[in-house]
From TrEMBL, chains A, B, C, D:
<dbReference type="InterPro" id="IPR027359">
    <property type="entry name" value="Volt_channel_dom_sf"/>
</dbReference>
<keyword id="KW-0813">Transport</keyword>
<keyword id="KW-0851">Voltage-gated channel</keyword>
<keyword id="KW-1133">Transmembrane helix</keyword>
<keyword id="KW-0472">Membrane</keyword>
<dbReference type="Pfam" id="PF00520">
    <property type="entry name" value="Ion_trans"/>
</dbReference>
<protein>
    <submittedName>
        <fullName>Voltage-gated potassium channel</fullName>
    </submittedName>
</protein>
<dbReference type="GO" id="GO:0008076">
    <property type="term" value="C:voltage-gated potassium channel complex"/>
</dbReference>
<keyword id="KW-0631">Potassium channel</keyword>
<keyword id="KW-0812">Transmembrane</keyword>
<dbReference type="InterPro" id="IPR028325">
    <property type="entry name" value="VG_K_chnl"/>
</dbReference>
<keyword id="KW-0407">Ion channel</keyword>
<feature type="domain" description="Ion transport">
    <location>
        <begin position="29"/>
        <end position="237"/>
    </location>
</feature>
<keyword id="KW-0406">Ion transport</keyword>
<dbReference type="InterPro" id="IPR005821">
    <property type="entry name" value="Ion_trans_dom"/>
</dbReference>
<feature type="transmembrane region" description="Helical">
    <location>
        <begin position="186"/>
        <end position="204"/>
    </location>
</feature>
<dbReference type="GO" id="GO:0001508">
    <property type="term" value="P:action potential"/>
</dbReference>
Length: 248, 248, 248, 248
């Protein structure tokens, strides 16, 4: 009985430490900053094309920390989902952050076992490590909040922008098939043009194609800029609201 | 008498099904989604450069569906224009969507008859199929609504942007005729520059041309961005208004 | 005495016709539309690189019309400046539109006399013809109105943008002198980058240059976008105000 | 005693002249405009790649003026920091503008001594001269004011934009390592793309890279545009507030 109570209280303490820190809880703050440091360290090898002994050891150590972190979070899942009880342990591995955590661990595990043979194939998976940082970012919380609030408007506007891009690509592909190897190239052209990035790797060369390209960009830039406008406006509102709150 | 009544009630039912669905009418919803699927299927062959037997059969089947849809809509036109009576059947083929519907059918008809000899020439016409989707798009309705509301402001602003683009092109063409094959090239340069796309396929190389290009873009980007600004602002107003309505 | 009165009333009538039309005055409207047509016709030869007999005759006829228009406006200048009396005839040639009118006539006069020997040199001057259109453009009036109203804010902001561009160019020219033939090239790079046009004809290649280029564009785009923001906001205000007026 | 008083009153007068002018103080205005002229003159040699006798003499004379200006400001520092007393003379050299002033002088001093051997190395330092202009710019004051006011919002948003740029670069570098020589190249690509400059010197070529590039720019432009939006909005607010004040 005492042992069970001890385990529960220990698990509670682990949960408090592992979860995002309150300012007053020093151990929790230290854990968060350590994890941030480990995540950043784990990303360093991804920023280089070659591998060396140091990078291999960084990989081994950071993945161990990630595994411990994953276990800690899993065994305390019932504190996270307060009202789900034992079900929490089943639900936890399917939360977005748990999936990111798992995907951060898996490629390195393979690497440990198979001696970096799959290294090139696994490069992409290694990127999931960086997403672990999002857990600790307040700016990300804020922008996610804005996106959630304006979800319906954003969805409608993204649908519209996507539709306009597809339509432009389709017309351009029909007008000037020689400039594009495939329909995908036309989509790429439309996105690069309508976001006004304009690399200059693909552009219309025939007169008809240029005329359509001009009409398309003149009309379409407004439509493709709508998501940007909505996010900016939503962010400003969020700022003003929190300003008003703090002024009261 | 009974037959006439039967035909009228059948035509009414057809109209209810063919026209945009109310949420409660299941047949109408099914018809709409089926048409959407057929439209999307009919566009697939346009996204590829080569043709094959599958694409030919997709074309044949989808065009049949389009013809039936066209006939259904035409024979129930009097329900659409409630107060025009028999005149509706004369007016209907000249409504924008009826023209799009016809243009979606015609190229495929030729294709059926002439064995795809005119295939390349007709590529562009095939694009009209995609415009049929607009009938089912609420986002398009909303943006069309915004454009209609701000029509006068947008017209004035597009006139201004068009004028500025022409003026810039004319001056640039006079300042640096060697960089442009024709006046059309200068117009193309002005649009690509003032929308800030900037592919980099045409740009001024002489000092005088560069100076004018800098002045022109510094002053002109604001003017060419006005339509974007008006559409964004109009869209935001529309959103806020519908938010206020639903909140009351 | 009667002759003097006749001349005055005739000059008054000429002024009414030549000046921008009220809707009720048909002769004046006709004069305006004829002048617009002549201006557009006079620009057509500028849009082509080669000259031919037709273009020479268009030039001769349109310049005659411009000369008559210039004389009409000059001899009725006292109606324009209502309170200046005889001084008006001295002041008129120095008004902006009178200068544009004169510059539209001069190159063609030389052309008449010297047989197009100076044709290439005079290309640029020919562009002044197109500025004559501004007299008849309401959109131009509106935007000029906005610019005048926000004059102080725009000046401050343009000064800031100009300063930032110069500073960026200076630093870039010092950081990476090999990519730029002269300081003018660096200014050109800064304008093309900070307006986000980005042709790709000049860009930093050294690491230091790229770092500075990134910092400069990340911070500077906001500053260079300020004039665009002010003009858009000013235009919106103007639109809302005139909407409110017409709603009352 | 009289001498001390004389020195104090002389120092006070120097401070009044050297510091930014009130409109009524003519000597101070003259000093400011002379310094502006000297600063501009001192920048001229930086705008050219070659050096000549004239530029050497401009350098010598302007650096003398800068040294005098630096001494004047230092010995009157106690008037600037009104309540710090003698400590002012210790604090002054560490104020931002004093550092800029010193950095404007140092490279030219070396130049005087060493006969331009280090000329190329010192090019960058010479740019600090131009920053001296900021002391006299009211537009810079205004924008600095806006930045200070929105400091917290801007910091959060820049953090977000920086994070998004790093994330994009990391994923792109993993997806398509062949297009980028190093991770720095990927960061450069992300900045050039997400600010929509799009030079076209680095861009994805593989299909996977292009898909990610499209998704990244479609979502990221909004986030990278947030600082621009905040500065524009803050500047507009500042303008409106000062308008309201002057209207009261």
């Amino acid at each position: 009985m005492v042992i069970v109570k001890g385990i529960i209280s220990m698990r509670k303490r682990i949960y408090e430490i592992v979860d995002i820190a309150k300012k007053t809880d020093k151990s929790s703050s230290i854990y968060d900053y350590t994890m941030l440091l480990i995540i950043v360290a784990s990303i360093v090898p991804v920023c280089f094309k070659t591998s060396n002994v140091l990078f291999i050891w960084i990989d081994r150590i950071t993945v161990l920390a990630f595994i411990l972190d994953y276990i800690f979070r899993w065994v305390t899942a019932d504190f996270k989902f307060k009202d789900k009880g034992a079900k929490s342990f089943l639900l936890y591995p399917f939360t977005p952050f748990a999936i990111i955590d798992l995907l951060s661990i898996l490629p390195s595990l393979t690497a440990l076992n198979m001696g970096f043979k799959l290294f090139r194939l696994l490069r992409l998976n290694k990127v999931f490590k960086v997403l672990k940082i999002l857990r600790y970012s307040k700016s990300f919380d804020l922008i996610l909040n804005v996106i959630m609030k304006e979800k319906q408007a954003l969805l409608a506007v993204c649908y519209l922008a996507g539709g306009y891009i597809s339509l432009s690509a389709l017309i351009m592909f029909s007008v000037e098939p020689d400039s594009f190897n495939s329909f995908f190239d036309a989509i790429y052209w439309a996105v690069v043009t309508l976001t006004t990035v304009g690399y200059g790797d693909i552009y219309p060369v025939s007169n008809l194609g240029r005329i359509f390209g001009m009409v398309s960009s003149f009309m379409g830039i407004a439509i493709v800029a709508l998501p940007t406008g909505i996010i900016t406006a939503g962010y400003m509102n969020e700022l003003n609201r929190s300003d008003n709150k703090s002024n009261r």
